[in-house]
């Protein structure tokens, strides 16, 4: 699709950040700030990962999901604290009203990546995922660094928070389902949600269906696919950190833009997200300028993440996702992390000890 006045989001070239001088970099930083402040979303072009590399990545994703379900389930995600591995259709939901997302995912991590197909495997999946992960991490780091200028924080601000950062590369497949299924109330490809790390890099194929509440008024606009671009969206921790200057915006995946096939089935859709989470030890303390107040308490990034992952996957409360789960104790030792989750009612508690 051509970029014209109708295009719903700013499209920004990242090239100056990679190779430009200080003045050009500052200009891009301002463009990013404006986009993140208004919409929470931006489309990047010329960001150091080519359209061909993105195509190759989708090829790996497709081959991963094309394997038999029993095989994929051997690598099923088992822990909220280390959300890594395969999630089958219907296993994740942030919707407390029982909404249904028709998708399957694979999560790839930097640390604790045991539920990943073995190194040296047939098509080099693990090696490719590692290298794509690294490219995304490099880009995410550049994006966050660029924001230092406009947030008024030191250029070194992210250094300690990102050295042991633990992002999550997620391959998604929205399987081919009947159009009539998606038309039923409460059925989505992915239900409306905000992401909960610092920010997300998002790559999508040409099928479409991604929609964004871009003015935060409940009116969702299509985030149309644009070949060779990468979407960056602000997530909850960056909204907290920036004291609401950068917006974490609700989004969802609905009906594709393209027509269903003659048999009434929707085309499968592939997308890949890279959720940027800092070092879990990071305290997210809002940057409050003189004369401002903040509604936010400081939060520990690792606890925050585990808490929300538990809610979405129902680890602590498998039968009752609408209960409010909170972390009541979390400690991190040299070689373990111990997280205790408890429902507000105190009725359910679970301790998960996870090797780091
Ligand atoms: O598939 C997409 O385009 C969006 C995926 C998404 O929002 C997510 O996984 O958090
Ligand atoms: Fe998302």
UniProtKB/TrEMBL annotation:
One example of a Gene Ontology biological process annotation: small molecule biosynthetic process
Domain Fe2OG dioxygenase: from-to ranges: 164-278
SUPFAM superfamilies on file: Clavaminate synthase-like
Signal peptide start-end: none
PROSITE patterns (UniProt xref): FE2OG_OXY
This protein's UniProt keywords: Iron, Metal-binding, Oxidoreductase
Source domain of life: Eukaryota
Pfam families given in the database record: 2OG-FeII_Oxy (PF03171), DIOX_N (PF14226)
The keyword Oxidoreductase appears for this protein: yes
GO molecular function (one): metal ion binding
Transmembrane segments annotated in the record for this chain: none
InterPro entries in the record: DIOX_N, IPNS-like_FE2OG_OXY, IPNS-like_sf, Iron_ascorbate_oxido_reductase, Oxoglu/Fe-dep_dioxygenase_dom
Family assignment from sequence similarity: Belongs to the iron/ascorbate-dependent oxidoreductase family.
PANTHER family reported for this sequence: 2-OXOGLUTARATE (2OG) AND FE(II)-DEPENDENT OXYGENASE SUPERFAMILY PROTEIN-RELATED
Protein name, UniProt field: Clavaminate synthase-like protein
């Amino acid at each position: 699709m051509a970029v014209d006045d109708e295009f719903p989001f700013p499209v920004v070239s990242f090239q100056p950040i990679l190779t430009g001088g200080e003045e050009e970099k500052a200009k891009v930083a301002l463009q990013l700030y404006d986009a993140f402040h208004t919409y929470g979303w931006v489309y990047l072009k010329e960001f150091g990962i080519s359209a061909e590399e993105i195509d190759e990545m989708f090829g790996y994703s497709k081959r991963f999901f094309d394997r038999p379900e029993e095989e994929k389930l051997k690598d099923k995600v088992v822990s909220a604290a280390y959300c890594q591995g395969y999630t089958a259709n219907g296993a994740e939901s942030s919707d407390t009203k029982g909404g249904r997302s028709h998708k399957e995912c694979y999560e790839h991590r930097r640390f604790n990546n045991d539920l990943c197909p073995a190194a040296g495997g047939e098509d080099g999946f693990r090696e490719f995922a590692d290298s794509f992960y690294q490219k995304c991490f490099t880009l995410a780091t550049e994006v966050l660094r660029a924001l230092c200028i406009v947030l008024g924080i030191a250029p070194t601000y992210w250094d300690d928070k990102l050295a042991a950062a633990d992002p999550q590369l997620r391959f998604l497949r929205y399987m081919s389902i009947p159009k009539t299924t998606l038309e039923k109330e409460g059925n989505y490809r992915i239900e409306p949600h905000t992401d909960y790390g610092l920010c997300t890099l998002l790559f999508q194929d040409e099928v479409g269906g991604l929609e964004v509440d871009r003015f935060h008024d409940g009116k969702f606009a299509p985030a149309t696919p644009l070949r060779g671009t990468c979407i960056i969206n602000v997530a909850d921790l960056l909204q907290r950190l920036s004291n609401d200057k950068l917006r974490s915006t609700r989004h969802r995946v609905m009906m594709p833009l393209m027509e269903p096939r003659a048999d009434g089935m929707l085309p499968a859709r592939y997308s890949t997200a890279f959720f940027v989470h800092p070092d879990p030890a990071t305290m997210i303390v809002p940057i409050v300028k003189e004369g401002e107040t903040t509604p936010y308490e400081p939060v520990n990034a690792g606890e925050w993440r585990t808490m929300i992952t538990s809610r979405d996957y129902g680890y602590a409360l498998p039968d009752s996702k609408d209960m409010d789960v909170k972390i009541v104790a979390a400690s991190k030792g040299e070689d373990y992390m111990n997280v205790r989750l408890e429902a507000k009612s105190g009725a359910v508690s679970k301790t998960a000890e996870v090797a780091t």
